[in-house]
Model the fold of this input.
Amino acid sequence: MIIEPMKACHVPQIAQLEKRCFTDPWSEKSIASELENPLSLWLVAVDGEKLIGYVGSQTVLGETDMMNLAVAPEARRQGTGRALVLAIVDALTEKGSHSLMLEVRVSNTPARTLYESLGFSQVGRRPKYYVNPKEDALILRKEWSV
Done:
């Protein structure tokens, strides 16, 4: 597995993975627009020619929001998600960011376990944040020194 910055050639595979992993997926056009956004940093995990995961973020004034993290179902529980989060924290640190915040479904125990193991702490809750199906989101945050 190799982790690298997202390129235009990755966009269709990311859009397909979005559809497989999320009930409210981003469109291919929305994903592609992140390539032009100077606030964005997206990384992909590839195994040969196959994209097996990605993480997307946006940073403003040293604080970063994780937009999405997804790993192909057949590639889960093999360290891809952990590797992507660690890689984006490293890349963000180099760019001067000092924190990473994200929302996660209350019911998403595997993701919550991963984030907690990586030092994220719950800082809030967004009632009915997710709509399909309706569910609260936990707001998690990790801070570090630059």
About this structure: The first strand starts at residue 2 and ends at 5. The mean pLDDT is 96. The chain has one domain: 2-143.
